[in-house]
Amino acid sequence: MAAVTLTNVVKRFGGFGVVHGANIDIAEGEFVVFVGPSGCGKSTLLRMIAGLEDISAGEIAIGGKVVNDVEAAERGIAMVFQSYALYPHMTVEQNLSFGLRMNGNPKPDTERRVRRAAEILRIDELMHRRPKQLSGGQRQRVAIGRAIVREPQVFLFDEPLSNLDAELRVQMRVEISRLHKELGVTMIYVTHDQTEAMTLADRIVVLKAGNVEQIGAPLDLYDDPANRFVAGFIGSPKMNFMPARVVETGPGAATVELVNHAGARLSKPLQSTPPAVGAEVVLGVRPEHFFDAGKGDCDIAVKADVAEHLGSVSYVYAGAGDDELIIEREASRQRASGDHLTVAIKADKALLFDTKGARIR
Amino acid sequence: MRHQNATAYRFLTPYLLIFSIFWVWPIISSFLISFQATRTVPWRFAPTFNWGRLIGDPAFYNALKNTLLILVIQVPVMISLAIVMAVLLNSPLLKVRGLYRFAFFAPVVVGEVAYSAVFRLMFNLNFGIINKLLNSVGLPSVDWFSNVTPAMALIMIAVTWRWAGYNAIILLAGLQSIPDDVYEAATLDRVSKVKQFFYITLPLLKPIIVFCAVLSIIGTMQLFTEPFLITERGGPGGGTETLGLLLYRQGFRSLNFGYASAVAYTMAGLAIAITLVQLWLTRDPK
Amino acid sequence: MTSRSQSRLGRAIALHLFLTPLAVIWLFPLWMMVVFSTMPDNGIFSPGIELLPHDNFVDNFNNLQRDTNFVGAIGISVSVAVTYTFLSVLLTSMAGWALARYQFVGKGAVVAIILGTITLPYSVVLIPQFIMVARDFQLANTWIALIVPPLFNSLGVLFMRQAFSMMPADLFDAARVEGVKEWRIFLFVALPLARPMLAALAIILFLASWNNYLWPLLINSQPGSMTAPVALGTLIGLTKVSWGGIMAGAVMLTVPMLVVFVLLQRHFIAGIAAGAVK
């Protein structure tokens, strides 16, 4: 077990910056998920922790020791790859033991570790098969087993579930959670899937274009995102963003009017100095935070284009372009396209952003 | 990826040493030698000695003419034949495919000496099986070795036999990389098989055809063994002498390294020109 | 029968009618090589048309062995080809590995030099190579002279570079994270995975060495140091020589390669299709 600390970590390829100074503290035994769209630098960050990429500037410490110049093998980490990276010419058993054998680990100890990993992951039956003869889920288990065998201080996962089908993905997600509890080891997990991040993480690191946007517990990110990007990235379906204008300010509050819904005004309490009257802002409301007409602080009327019925909930898609809204309704089975519908917004369930995407609290 | 100069060069150095000593340096050295008079001891620098002689040497022009003549006739014939072989071998209608493939590809493994000997025997004037077969259908014997035209034809036949299958292998691999659905779409559009060949197969195969042509040109340009062994040192009377043979004669019979290097660099110049043409022919359309 | 299957049948017949004679012509020289090798010399030089094998191969071979020490030459050829193939596969796959899998200073230059000179004719380096090996190193008529200079061939490097760079990078990173040393990754992960490509390369290199004529002709011209093709070549054109014997030699050079070709056709074709020869 070990803590991992990233201090001002920078990665440049040639002159091109990929990570611009990341500061992340990961506690011992914590499960941290790096999440962000592709190209945000999350995998690069993970590979730098693993020692597979040079660190252009800054420091990475594992267990209190700076590892910038330590070989990957000496860092006490194990990594599970997106492609599983199983050696196709070796049996499962050989795959699990390869690293230990190559480093002259005593044979009985190697056997013990391999047996233990096989038990934890329930792959005892597969030991003499080759990767080609395994299903996707079984391969995934072997890949994780190979990491367990190393008895690492830190587990690194690089999008480990993205090659599995939806059902298996849920199953393996639970499995990885269980593994974290069982082993109690620090785990760092990279994914572009916010659902995985929400369900697995103790804390989530949201990245965008090489910058850390926010670090926090899953529900904190959901309830209190630092900016429009995090607000839009966390939560599914996405948060709705509606253009608005400040029409009135008072001490500790601002009243905004929705640009696309003339007359819809909402008074939002603020801790900071409110923006000037006339300023353009964006109002963010999650699909699940629309209420029945009259039961909020402000009503808006929309015309449904499409309604998707998922059983327990339905999503109504209304409007188009920057006016498009996704509205979750529990009791809207009968809604069909073309229907008119009035919903309510509550001030405490709406977030305010400036036009650059920063949160106005 | 991490920068790993030391590791990389540990893997690279053994090959790089050999490559530098036996390829890179000789390329430079050959160029330098072509500017030296090499029949004096020590060699002396004389920039026009070999190149001047080359420009005025009828033997050089004879070899150049023969080489180009073989190139111009043999390469297109062989490449066309190879395309036909590849396309037909790729036909789903073909039975006992393995046998046909063996027939056309087998010459690829036959050594130059072995096949030169066989061709020499087969084309013998009085006892060669070819003339016997010609006679048996009422045609006169051909004196393949005493007249220039049949001797040249013989060289071209031999080289074509040896290398057509080789090119067909490369072309066949290219054909098999063309997705079936392209042809299926064309069939649905009522494009005939023949038109499919000219408007789909050939254009898609063009880069590979050009590649084969360049390989063949550069190979044929250095033609040595066939005129050396089949037509007896470029006979009759220099009628099948090639640049490769001239280089051998000058370099290793007369030990005139400077002049032979000039001949070698003439070939290099041709090769570079041809490679540039290839790059131009297969350039990406803007 | 429908007109559709009729036209298919017609096309199939036309295809075979065209291809069969062509295949017979193409096999004819090889067939005649075998026929000649089994005929006595006075049979080869007789007016009749002989298209079937006789039973004189052993006598012809004895004549060949009388004209030149062909068995010894075959021994040299086999040893040289085996050693050359092993060394060349090793050197070029190591170099290909470095170029495919590491970032290092000078990589661009190395690749540029290899690619920029690959279409230069071999004739260009013939004279300096000869001067170097024969005069400077005094190595003419040795095995080293036959084996080492041809190792420059860079097609293997490009072939293996391609093979290694098509493998998923994660595989090697996984081993790296597990603390496996780079040369062990090369030996125990990369090479086993490249087995089909190595086989293709080895076959092509072996064939090239086995059939190599010009360089061995120049550098090892001493009787007793000649390779089999060179030894056989010296007989062609002599007046008092057994042509049945020469044909027996040609068969001995060719038939083993034909057998290898039939058995390992897939690798052969893969090697040639990748342009790994010449």
From TrEMBL, chain B:
Keywords carried by this UniProt record: Cell membrane, Membrane, Transmembrane, Transmembrane helix, Transport
Location(s) in or outside the cell: Cell membrane
Pfam families linked: BPD_transp_1 (PF00528)
CDD domains (UniProt xref): TM_PBP2
Signal peptide coordinates: none
Transmembrane segments: 12-35, 68-90, 102-124, 144-164, 197-218, 257-281
Domain of life of the native organism: Bacteria
Membrane topology, record value: Multi-pass membrane protein
Main location: membrane
Residues in ABC transmembrane type-1 domain copies: 64-278
Gene3D superfamilies: MetI-like
Family, per entry: Belongs to the binding-protein-dependent transport system permease family.
Protein name per UniProt: Sugar ABC transporter permease
From TrEMBL, chain C:
Keyword hit for Magnesium: no
Transmembrane segments: 12-32, 70-97, 109-131, 143-164, 185-208, 241-264
Annotated localization: Cell membrane
Pfam families, alphabetized: BPD_transp_1
Annotated InterPro entries: MetI-like (IPR000515), MetI-like_sf (IPR035906)
Residue ranges annotated for the ABC transmembrane type-1 domain, each copy included: 74-264
Membrane-protein topology: Multi-pass membrane protein
PROSITE patterns the UniProt entry points to: ABC_TM1
Keywords per UniProt: Cell membrane, Membrane, Transmembrane, Transmembrane helix, Transport
Domain of life: Bacteria
Family (UniProt): Belongs to the binding-protein-dependent transport system permease family.
Protein name: Carbohydrate ABC transporter permease
Annotated organism of origin: Mesorhizobium abyssinicae
